[in-house]
Design brief:
By secondary structure, the chain is mainly α. The chain has one domain (about 1-194). It has helices spanning about 1-20, 25-35, 45-50, 55-85, 90-95, 100-120, 125-135, 140-194. Helix 2 (about 25-35) packs parallel to helix 4, helix 3 packs across helix 8 (about 140-194) and helix 6 (about 100-120) runs parallel beside helix 8 (about 140-194). The chain is elongated and about 65 Å long. The mean pLDDT is about 75.
Amino acid sequence: MYSGSVVTRVHARLQHLADSGRGTSVVLGWGLLQGCVFPGLADLFFLPLALSRPERAYRLALVATLGTLTGSVLLYWVGAEALTLLQGPLARMVGMTPAALDAARAQLATYGGWLIFASTMSPVSTKLTSIASGAAGVPFAAFVLALLAGRLLRTMVLAWLVRNGGAHLVNRWMAQRHLDHASHSKATDTHTSS
């Protein structure tokens, strides 16, 4: 009963946010911050806003992808700057030779794109993957293409699910919660007035 009213209020607030024109900015901003700073779900705002306004689902998916891609590219460059530390004193400390670093880079040049793509579909932190890709010297083009492909696939599948039944199911569930809450309130009022 109480959780239903909280969910109803949150859903109404998200619909208001989506209608106000700020939804796109919120999704982009969260994607950027989540891509490079904050831990958490990348789809935290995209998915609920898409559910509240399914006609905007694909647009919000593209915006969410742009935000997380931008944040991840920033972390890639942070990792690339850290490469100088890895090649220098830190590498010597852990016994990593220049030849071993070159062999690791060659492996990442071959398979790094697939690992990055897989990280977008898994619970593995894309932030860590982005930093590690830059630090390990994954080619930038391979990094961006793999990350873009993975994020686009993920957000577009979610947008498709929203547009093809997901939003309808949520709205039906919300209507049922509203009816349950109203009938419970009416029963409580009748019981207290007796």
